[in-house]
Amino acid sequence: MEYKQDCKLNFSLDYYNVTTQSAVTSSSLNLKTWQVSLIVLLGFGGFAMLLSVGHYFIRKYIYRDQDRVDTAFDAGGNVTLSLTAASAASQLFWPADLLQSATVTTKYGVAGAFWYAVGVVVNIVLFPLLSVHFKSRAPGAKTFLQVIQARFGKNAHIVSIVFALATNCVVLTCLILAGTATMTAIADDMSPEYAVILMAFLFGSYTLVGGLGATFYVSYFNCVLIYLMLLIVTLNVYYIHHDDSIGSLERLYDKISCVFGPEGNEGNSVVTFRSSGAIIFGIISIFLASAVVFCDQASWQMRIAAKPMQGVIGFFIGGLIWFAIPIPLTTTTGLIYLSESIEQGAPLLTDTQVDEGLVSPLILHKLFGVFGEVMILAMVCMALMSTGSGEIMAISSIIVYDIYQVYFNPYRSFQVAPNQCILCLCTYKTGSEDHGNKTEFCSCEGVKSCEACCNDDTTRSLQKSAVLPDYTCKVHGEYKKYQDILRNLKAWCIVWVTVAIVPMGLVINNSGINLNWAFQSGAVSTISCFPTVVLSVMWSKTTGAAVIAGNLLGLLVGYSSMVGLASTYPGGLENMESFVRNTAQETSVLVGCCFSFGISLFTCIGVSIVTNCKANSDNDCIREWDKTLAIDNPLYPWVEQYENNLTAMNIEYHHRPSFRQMEQLFKGARNAAYIGGTCFILIFLIVLPGILMIMPYLEFHQFQGWITFSHVFMFIMALFVFIVPPAQEIINIRKEYRDYIEPREQEIGDSAIQNELL
User: Fold this and answer.
1) Residue 311: CB partners within 8 Å, gap ≥ 6?
2) Given 1.20.1740, 1.10.287, 3.30.390, 3.40.630, which CATH number is that of 31-413+490-511+679-741?
3) What pLDDT was estimated at residue 314?
4) Is the dihedral of CA 23, 270, 594, 289 positive or negative?
5) 743 — alpha (psi -120 to 50), left (phi > 0) or beta?
6) Is the pLDDT of residue 360 over 90?
7) Where does the UniProt entry say this protein principally localizes (predicted)?
8) Is the dihedral of CA 432, 436, 441, 445 positive or negative?
C-alpha cells in the first residue's frame, strides 16, 4: 500500500521495543478501591443474588424441582432456545475476549478483530454437531466424563478428569488475569490480592443459591448489559458525539492509514484483511476455542440443560450473538488506540500493558471519562460472573458426579449392568420388541405415581424444624437419602471451589505470566483432549486405551514442540521473561497446537482400530451405546422429558427407548446440526474471508461499508437479545402454571369443599 503523501506521521507500532517511559502516564484511571468494591459487591453481586433467589422460587413454586441435585446442574433440562443462545454467547465471551481482541486489533488492524471472532465462532457453531450425538446417546448424563466412564471404565475416566480440570484451570487463569488487570488499572490503589477476593465473591455468591439455572439468568443479563454498553459506545462514537471522539469516520480512516502495520499485512496496512499474522492468530483461536468449548464441562452443561433441537438452534444463534460483539467493540477501541498513538507520536501503552489487555479500558476512559471506567468495569464484571460461575459449576459437577459418586461413595459398591435397575437390581429390556412375561423384570413405579413418596414429600414440607423425618418409601427412600447427600456435597463443593480461587489467584498473579501467554499457550495444554472427547461421543469403536494414549501422547509431543521452537527465538528460555515471551509467539503456539491435536487424533484412531478390531457388527455398536443410555437418575428418568416426543412419533418402548429409537427421535435435530454447521462453516471460513480479501486494502468507502455492516448486524442481534429470551421464558412459566399448578389448586379446592360437606 502506498501511504498518503500528506500524512504527517508514518508510525510503526513495534510493541516489543516500546519502553515503559514511552507509555502515556495518564493511562491510570480514577476510580477508588472503595468505589469499585461497592459497584462489584452491592451492584453486580446484589443483583445476581436477587436473580438467584428469583430463580429458586420459580423452580420451587412453578416447576417444583428445587430440591433435586440434578436441577442444580442441568437447570431442569428444558431451557429455552433463546436463553440457551444468549447464555452460550455470554459464557463464551470471557473478559479476555473483551480485552485481548482489542490487543489483536492494535497489532493486525481490522483483520485482527475479524479473525479473532471467526476463531471462536467456528467452534460455537460446530459444537451442536457433537452435542446432538451426546444428547441422543447419553440423555441422562450430566457431564461428558460420565460417557467416558460408562464406556471405558476407571483408567480412561481418571485421565480425562485430569484434562477436564486442567481446562477449567486454564479458563480460570485467563479470568483471574483479565479481571485483576482491569480492576487494578481502573482503581489506582487496588491491590491484586483484593481484586482476586472480589472475583471469588462474584464467581460463587449467587451460584450457591440458584445453581446452573441462576447462571443462565445471570448470563442472559450479562449479555443484555454487554449489548447495552456496546450500543452506547457505538452510538456515541459514530453517530451522536463523533466530533468529540473520532471527529469523523473519514478522519479516523486517514489517521490509521498512516500506521505501518506488521510485515504480514498487505502493504503494511492496518486497513486490510490480507494479514498472515491475523490468519495465524485465527487458526490459534480455533484450537484454543476447541479446547475450551469441547473439553470444558461448562460448555457441556449449557448444552445438557436444553433439549436437542433447542440446543442445536440455540448454539447457532449464540454464535451469531457472540460474533456481533468483538468486531464493533474492538474495531472501535483498537483503531482509536492507533489513531491516538498517531496524534501523540508514540504508543499510548507499553508492550506489557498491551498484552495485559489494557487497550479497551484506556480508550473508553479517554472517550467517556469516569463513565467509561464504569462501563468497562461493568462488562468485565458481568463476563467474570457468567463465565466464572459456569466454571465453578463445572468443577463442582465433576467432583459430585465423576469423583465422589464413582470413587468415594457410589450408591452400589459393584457395577450395575446397563439392563439392571439400580434400585431393585432386577433386569429390564428396552425397545418396542420387548414382549413376554414382564414380572421377571423391574416393576419399580415412578416417583410421581408413588403414594409413599407423595406422603413423604407432604410430611417433610410441613416440618418446621431443621431436622426432617426419614423417608418411609420402601422403593425410593434409600436413593432419596443418597440424593440428599449429593445435594449437600454440591453446596459444599461450590464453597470449596470458590474459596480455592483466592490462593490460586495469588499464585497466578505472582507467577510472572500474562494474559496473552495464558490465552495462547493454554490451548497446547488442553487441545489433545479434544479429539478423544469427540471420538468418545461419536465413534463406537473408540477404546479406553486409545483415549489414554491420545491424551498423554498429544500433550507430550505438542508441548515439547512448542517449547522446542520457542527456544530458537532470541533469548531462548533462559529466564521466566523470555520463556513467557517466546512460548507465546504465534508460530510456537500454532506448531504446538497442530502437533498436540494431530498426534492425539491419529493415536486415538490407530489404537482404537488395533485394540477393537473385532467390533464391527451393528449389535456391537448397540451394546456400546446401551452403556451410555443407562446413565440415569431412577427417581427422575430422562425418558420423562421426551414422553410427548416419543408419543407423537408413535415410538413404543418398555423401560427406556433403544439406541435406534433415540436415533430416530433426534433425526431432525441431527440433520439440523449437520446442515446448519456446514452452512456456518462455509460462511465464516470461506465466503466472508473470500469477499473481504478480494480487496488488497480498504478504500474509505469500503472501510465505511464494513463498519456499517458490523453495526447493523450488532443492532439486529441486540433486538433478539433484548426481546426474545424474556418473552420465551415468561411463556414457558405461564404454560407450566396453567398446565400443572392451576389444576392442582382446583383439585385441592374441590377436596376442601367435599370435606366441609362431609
Assistant:
1) 84, 128, 131, 132, 135, 303, 669
2) 1.20.1740
3) 86
4) positive
5) alpha
6) no
7) membrane
8) positive
Is pLDDT of 100 > 90? no
| Neighbour-count burial for 416-442, b at 16+ CB within 10 Å, e otherwise | eebebbbbeeeebbbbeeeeeeeeebb
Sequence ranges of the domains in the chain:
31-413+490-511+679-741
Is 313:83 a contact under the CB 8 Å cutoff? no
pLDDT higher for 32 or 393?
Answer: 393
Nearest residue to 584 (alpha-carbon basis) of 380, 330, 288: 288
Task: Label residue 5 by pLDDT band (50, 70, 90).
Answer: very low
User: Which residue type occupies 519?
Assistant: F
Amino acid at 283: I
Q: How far is CA 47 from the centre of its chain?
A: 22
CA–CA dist 353, 616 (Å, integer):
57
Kindly report the three-state secondary structure assignment for every residue of 87-133: HHHHHCCCHHHHHHHHHHHHHHCHHHHHHHHHHHHHHHHHHHHHHHH
Helix ranges restricted to H, 369-462: 370-397, 451-462
Neighbours of 63 (CB within 10 A): 20
Alpha helices in 567-615 (DSSP H): 576-583, 586-611
Per-residue pLDDT, 597: 93
**Which position has the higher pLDDT, 614 or 518?**
518
CB contact at 8 A, 138 and 628: yes
Better-scored residue on pLDDT, 706 or 17:
706
Question: Residues 299, 293: contact at Cβ < 8 Å?
Answer: yes
Looking at the DSSP bridge assignments, the partners of residue 275 are 265
Find residue 692's DSSP bridge partners.
Answer: none
Alpha helices, DSSP H, located in 305-416: 308-323, 326-344, 351-355, 359-368, 370-397
